[in-house]
Amino acid sequence: MSERTATETTTGTTRNDGPAPRVLTDQELSRLLGQQQFGVLASVRSTGHPHLSTVLYDWNAEERVLRVSSTADRLKVRQLRRDPHASLHVSGPDVWSFAVAEGEAEILDPADGSAPGEQPLPDRRVVILIRVSRLYGTALDIPAQD
After folding, report:
1. In sequence order, what are the residues at sequence separation of 6 or more whose Cβ sits closer than 8 angstroms to the Cβ of residue 4?
2. How far apart are CA 48 and CA 51, in angstroms?
3. CB of 72 closer than 8 Å to CB of 79
4. Residues 98, 91: contact at Cβ < 8 Å?
5. What is the DSSP letter of 76?
6. Which one, 27, 76, 80, 91, has least CB within 10 Å?
7. Model pLDDT for residues 40-95, shown as the tens digit of each residue
8. CA 94 to chain CA centroid, nearest Å
């Protein structure tokens, strides 16, 4: 069994002797989103269960908008057309740091006219546009050891 940083108490629960995660500010969350390229996009299945997809994304901090390219026939696109609620989870520099952006998605598809002025893209590509209404996340600030 591996050594743990948390210790087990007599009640069977664990106690963490290390520092607690710190809630990130809006500015720190935006910076983390801008520093990464990959995240995990969550959409909602018809059963109500989450569907997770690793995606490449672009973050526009001024507009608070995420852009994800996909093909029109992907499950995430079909689900977001039905239920636009979406979240994107982005990992930070360590396992305890993360940012989550939540919002409603819109599918921009040049082939169906939902992206005026845009030409149809190869492979029937669409853009998933998420207008972010909520950001949250934490970081674990561990002091450097000499």
Report:
1. 14
2. 9
3. no
4. yes
5. H
6. 27
7. 999 999 999 999 999 999 999 999 999 999 999 999 999 999 999 999 999 998 88
8. 16
